Amino acid sequence: MIYVSRQEHFNAAHKLYNPAWTEERNKEVFGPCANTNWHGHNYDLIVTVKGQPDPETGFVIDLKQLSTIIRQHVVDQVDHKNLNLDVPFMKDQLASTENLVVAFWQILAREIPRISSAQLHCIKLYETPRNFVEYYGE
Ligand SMILES: Nc1nc2c(c(=O)[nH]1)N=C([C@H](O)[C@H](O)COP(=O)(O)OP(=O)(O)OP(=O)(O)O)CN2
To bridge 97 with a disulfide, which of 20, 74, 127, 129 should be the other Cys (CB 3.0-4.6 Å)? Predict the structure, then answer.
């Protein structure tokens, strides 16, 4: 089995805020990440698919096509957006890296089979250079 990855990038604003809690509780749990007027991140997104190389192309997946799918269905939906306000698939969800990566999985697990027989294996999302989340669809 060969694992093939594509990295993409986007910027987005958000705040970590649970509407069921008081302002004080949100500040206590999320600290500056609950700042009322938002804050931003430069996210790095790494999508890994797995499969066997096609005997005619040598590709598990055409990375140009994978990039197009990720950009169209994920990056363009979140880039330069407010994740709490502007992104329909994050509506009523806490805009954490964990919840984002699960939402991205749901989208890409639907889209990748339309272009390739390769299987989605892992989505890794860096919120900062030091904080990142991996999801394997389990
Ligand atoms: N499990 C999670 N924990 C946190 C998340 C998250 O999505 N999942 N998100 C945040 C905040 O959004 C926050 O903005 C992260 O920033 P910060 O803690 O400042 O991260 P840095 O890597 O830049 O900070 P250093 O402490 O300087 O390394 C918080 N937690």
Answer: 127
For Cα atoms 31, 102, 119, give the angle at the middle one, nearest 5 degrees.
150
Which CATH number covers residue 99?
A: 3.30.479.10
- Among protein residues, the one with the nearest Cα to ligand 1's atom 23 is 128
CB 103 within 8 A of CB 116: no
b/e burial code for range 34-66 (CB count within 10 A of at least 16 → b): beeebeebebbbbbbbbbeeeeeeebbbeeeeb
What's the CA gap between 89 and 131, in Å, rounded? 22
The predicted complex's ipTM stands at: 0.90
Count: domains in the chain:
1
Q: Which of 126, 109, 131 minimizes the C-alpha distance to 118?
A: 109
Paired tokens of 27 = 């500040």
User: What's the pLDDT tens digit per position in 18-60?
Assistant: 999 999 999 999 999 999 999 999 999 999 999 999 999 999 9
Q: Which domain holds residue 18?
A: 2-135
Q: What is the pTM of this model?
A: 0.95
